[in-house]
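Work through this protein:
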Amino acid sequence: MQKLTIVSLLDVIGELFSDEISIAVSNTNEYIYYRPSKRIDLKIEPGDFIKEGTITYKAFTSKQKVSEFISRDVFGVPYHGMAVPFEYNGKLEGCVTAIYPALTEGKSVVTIKTHDGWKPIPFEKVIYLEVKNRKTYIFSNEITGTNKNTLQEFEYSLPRETFIRCHRSYIVNVHHIREIFPDSHSTFVLEMSNGDRVPVSQSYSSYFRKLLGF
């Protein structure tokens, strides 16, 4: 068996991802690999320098994983991205970036499945989302139903300034948090506007506190 080149290996890894996700790999100065998706293409070429304001640039400057929405000002196309820098022998060497389409453009509702059919729920009326028994449940004051998307997909399609991932099984609408209670091991419990309580796990607690400023 012949040895795989780095590019061919990255191509194989890229096949594992959704057709909606573009993949970029860079060293500390420029992109060395780019695989566009069918839904979004930032027109990156190997050898292109890393622009200030990109998700990759933010990961390098913060030296940690970054996940957020980037406006059209940088590449001419709005996108959601997640970038993870990596080191070798303690030295920053590069970054891997996943690029998702900005699904929120022109969209302001979550459509849920109910016993009678489907119903669109405006973003502002969604209290929280929960994954259980391999289904994503959408909770509002008026109705509860399911949606086919995963929490990761919702994490990129819902407005970041309003919806926060607080647990591997929950995303909450911050406008519907009634109160925050401390829990064990530096975690929290959220009381939502409908009276339900949602946990904030330890892995999300510092991120959650930073976004809400406490």
